[in-house]
Design a protein that fits this description.
The chain is an all-alpha fold and 279 residues long. It has helices spanning 3-16, 20-36, 42-58, 62-78, 89-100, 106-118, 126-139, 143-160, 183-197, 200-209, 211-215, 222-233, 243-252, 259-264, and strands at residues 167-170, 175-178. The radius of gyration is 20 Å and the shape is elongated.
């Protein structure tokens, strides 16, 4: 058994004994040592964080597991890697799944995870990464969490990219910030507004107006939108054995940095227009 395997086994033992805090802290400390070595041992750091995060998630420790996942994404950035199928995309997927099904405190961690991952990709892919939080939260009936995740994501986007000037759209029930150059992100904002209003007409109009942009996700959003239509607007969708898992599987089949995101990078800037159904 290698040194890293022994370390992982020790920390898993601590987690199984309920020593969650101690294991969490030790995992962070040991990872830091690997990163400060000369040269940095990124492979060991990634193995340690991914194994530790999954063990904590399995023990019901979503906050600690999510923290290690954020650290994991940071390590990918330092190593100039992306968490795709050749590295640890499965671990990021597991983190997202646990955070979606976690507690109210899990939503900010999920939003930050998606934003941190997005920050190493093309600016136009913001909607793809934000949707990885918004759609799953909607599909477990957590509208409040979906709104919170999108708000946190867009707030960080605005803070980190002051050159992005949003179009302010106000109505009696909502104030929206739309970005002409990121149409898929705008679609998510308007979709949540349609869900809050329970307006099937607004939902249909949105899908029609943004059809060309949605097509650029290479089908990643299709199942999610079908199930959102059925859950919130009574529009029947083809039956699936597990809509949440089927939809998430379509997201993560190629990773956010895969074909869907590549097509999203090619989006044309959206012509600013009044938001449909916003009075």
């Amino acid at each position: 058994m290698s040194k890293i395997e022994k370390t992982i086994a020790r920390q898993k033992q601590r987690i199984s004994e309920g020593q969650y805090y101690e294991a969490h802290q030790q995992l962070r400390v040991i990872t830091s040592r690997y990163l400060k070595s000369n040269p940095p041992n990124y492979d060991a750091a990634i193995d340690l964080l991914s194994s530790g995060a999954l063990a904590l998630f399995d023990a019901g420790q979503g906050g600690s597991g999510g923290d290690l996942c954020l650290y994991l994404v940071d390590v990918y950035k330092q190593a100039e890697l992306k968490p795709d199928s050749a590295s640890k995309d499965h671990d990021v997927y597991e983190a997202e799944r646990h955070l979606v099904l976690g507690t109210r405190d899990s939503v900010p961690i999920l939003a930050r995870l998606e934003y941190d991952w997005y920050a190493s990709d093309e600016p136009s892919t913001a909607g793809i990464y934000a949707s990885r939080a918004v759609f799953p939260l909607l599909l477990v009936g957590n509208l409040r969490g979906a709104n919170q995740a999108l708000l946190l994501f867009t707030s960080q986007l605005g803070t980190s990219n002051p050159q992005l000037v949003p179009q302010e759209v106000s109505s009696g029930s909502a104030d929206l910030r739309l970005y002409p150059s990121i149409p898929l992100l705008n679609f998510l904002s308007l979709l949540l507004l349609a869900v809050q209003r329970g307006s099937s007409n607004l939902f249909r109009n949105l899908r029609a107006q943004y059809a060309n942009h949605i097509a650029e996700t290479d089908g990643m959003w299709d199942e999610a939108l079908e199930h959102v239509g059925e859950m919130f607007f009574g529009i029947r969708a083809p039956k699936q054995s597990n809509p949440l898992m089927d939809m998430m599987g379509s997201f993560f089949g190629g990773g956010a940095g895969g074909a869907g995101a590549s097509k999203a990078r090619q989006q044309k800037a959206e012509t600013p227009a009044p938001a449909p159904g916003v009075d």
